[in-house]
Amino acid sequence: MTLPIVSVDDSNEEKLVLTFDTSNTELEEGFVSREIGIFAKLDNGSEALYAYSNAGNNYDYIPSKDTPSDENRLVVNLVVSSSANISVQIDKSIVYTHKSDV
């Protein structure tokens, strides 16, 4: 799954908090959700894997759209260098709303 960023908190210069919302409404095939990767677009426009995590045996199964499931909010905390120049672009057309948003 590719998830859009719905919010970013960069108030701490050493930490970046990214929030994603997940839904299986368009997922054709279920899968084991064990890994997460955060990709960053570099100055030259190419994308590179910036952060990676693996849940090992503490994974979840994400069913296909044939088995509707609740939407979930995923919050990722990244430690970053204070010398890094990071900007996050959020697609404002995303319509997900979470209880904490209202």
Give your account of this protein's structure:
By secondary structure, the protein is an all-beta fold. It has a single domain (5-101), classed as Sandwich (Immunoglobulin-like), CATH 2.60.40. Helices cover 0% and strands 44% of the residues. The protein is built from no helices and seven strands. It has strands at residues 5-12, 15-22, 31-33, 35-41, 47-54, 60-62, 72-79. The mean pLDDT is 84.
Q: What's the number of extended β-strand segments?
A: 7
The biggest beta sheet reads:
3 strands, antiparallel
Report the C-alpha radius of gyration, rounded.
15 Å
Q: How many domains?
A: 1
Low-confidence stretches: none
Overall 3D shape: globular
Alpha-beta content class: mainly beta
Under the CATH scheme, the architecture is Sandwich
- The first-level CATH class is given as Mainly Beta
What is the N-to-C order of secondary-structure elements (H for helix, E for strand)? EEEEEEE
| Strand neighbour order, sheet with most strands | 1-2-7
Assess the beta-strand content as a share of residues.
Answer: 35-45%
Summarize the structure.
This protein is mainly β and 102 residues long.
SSE arrangement:
Elements: E1 5-12, E2 15-22, E3 31-33, E4 35-41, E5 47-54, E6 60-62, E7 72-79
Antiparallel strand pairs: 1-2, 2-7, 3-6, 4-5
Name its key features.
102 residues, mainly beta, Immunoglobulin-like, 7 strands, 0% helix
